[in-house]
Amino acid sequence: MRKTFLFLDTIVNKVDAKGRVSLPADYRAIVKETASEIVCYRSFNSPCIEGCLETMLDKLADEMDSNLDFFSETQDEISNLLFGDSKRYPFDSTGRIMLSEKLLKHAGITDTAVFVGKGRKFQIWNPQNWEKEEERIRAAVLKNRPSIKKSENDR
Amino acid sequence: MRKTFLFLDTIVNKVDAKGRVSLPADYRAIVKETASEIVCYRSFNSPCIEGCLETMLDKLADEMDSNLDFFSETQDEISNLLFGDSKRYPFDSTGRIMLSEKLLKHAGITDTAVFVGKGRKFQIWNPQNWEKEEERIRAAVLKNRPSIKKSENDR
DNA sequence: TTGATTCCCATAAAATCCCATGTTATACCA
DNA sequence: TGGTATAACATGGGATTTTATGGGAATCAA
User: Fold this and answer.
1) Do the strands A87-90 and B10-14 form a parallel or antiparallel pair, or are they unpaired?
2) Cα separation of A30 and A10, whole Å?
3) Any idea what DSSP says for residue B41?
4) Is the CB of A33 under 7 A from strand D?
5) B108 and A10: CB-CB below 8 Å?
6) Rounded Cα–Cα distance for residues B14 and A130 (Å)
7) Fewest CB atoms within 10 A around its CB: which of A56, A97, B32, B35?
8) Which residues of A touch B73 (CB under 8 A)?
9) CA atom of B58 to C1′ atom of D4, Å
10) What does each C-alpha distance from B34 to A72, B2, B92, B98, B135 come to in angstroms?
11) How far is the first Cα of chain B from the last one, in angstroms, to the nearest whole number?
């Protein structure tokens, strides 16, 4: 199908009165190669929205078909929840999507959204929550890899 | 792509008023074989910018979703930070990239940048900081290997 | 009809392209 | 070998395009 693609970077965009948000241009460029819509669902682990290409879910479905034995029952159940929760979000000619109330509520997003690249997928956060989350992850990394020092120039 | 490639040498270039820097020609030659952009992120260990080919991150992403761990929150936390912090930096027809404020701040770079080859990746430093860092590394090496003596001809 | 979604146009700021120039490195030739 | 012509590179500045974002009109659903 295609070459490599990666959702990268952290981008802050506004959510306007109608509930529209610009999908970051870089993300759009990736999506456009195969479609004009992304798939979003509520993250199971965090108060944020997750987004990916439909092909990702398709791959998941394939894996479930062919590897039934290797998947735990709970994994299966989670997958099914995922399909039920996911929805396509097409973007208009100016590159905006309109997130559902359900998603916005789950992530606590009102007027500003932060897009965070996660490689094959991405997340959408409330700015304050993301700040805390990033802090948490950094702390976890430092704890597990004491050799890494915090830079003086940051913050 | 070539089987082997190495970012080598240390090159000093100017950062202009718009925040543009020429990617050293040697580096560009390497990148051009597969792409017209590099990926940069804030070094975890030092006050500098790190750059590499997108293929590097792509490999990481492959590893991450090959453990069928679509839902896990225990995915390597460094990767998690890495994708969110990384960004593509395409270079224009004259070979320049435009580094983000975030990166420049992290590295304390204003009007001059030093590119330092690190093999599969490279770093970008503030000149003064790099000087100190190089000094530090040299000292550390000498300390660990007392048999190596500083040459009188150096400096 | 009413509320919501989609489409279209407008705009300011930022990113990118393109041309020009000085400088350095490389090739070439007598 | 020395010296010059040529090409490659780094850099500056202006023009052009892309992006994010706001708002109105058109379309749709209940």
Assistant:
1) unpaired
2) 15
3) E
4) no
5) no
6) 34
7) B32
8) 45-46
9) 49
10) 40, 9, 15, 20, 35
11) 38
- pLDDT tens digits for B76-99? 678 889 999 999 999 999 999 999
Q: Which of 81-100 (A) contact B at CB < 8 A?
A: 82
CB-proximal positions of chain D, under 7 Å: 8-14, 18-24
Give the tens place of pLDDT for each residue, A52-83. Answer: 999 999 988 887 777 655 556 777 778 888 99
Q: Chain B residues with CB inside 8 Å of A147's CB?
A: 45
Contact call for residues B22 and B113 (beta carbons, < 8 A)? no
Residue A97 tokens, joined: 């999507």
Contacts of B87 in chain A (CB under 8 A): 8-9, 26
A96 nearest nt, CA–C1': D20
- Cα distances from B149 to residues B70, B80, B131, B135, B145, in angstroms, run 52, 42, 20, 14, 9
Q: CA B142 to CA B117: how far, in whole Å?
A: 21
Q: Which residue of B has its CA nearest to A74?
A: B71
Q: For residue A22, which nucleotide's C1' is closest to its Cα?
A: D20
**Tokens linked to B55:** 């293929």
CA angle B136, B140, B144 (to 5 degrees): 175
Tell me the C-alpha to C-alpha distance, in Å, between residue B14 and each of A62, A104, A122.
51, 44, 34
* Token pair of B141 as six digits: 């090496």
Rounded to whole angstroms, the distance from the CA of residue B30 to the C1' of nucleotide D1 is: 35
Backbone torsions φ then ψ of B119, nearest 5 degrees = 90, -110
Average pLDDT of chain A to the nearest whole number: 87
Q: Is the pTM of this model over 0.70?
A: yes
* DSSP for residue B7: B
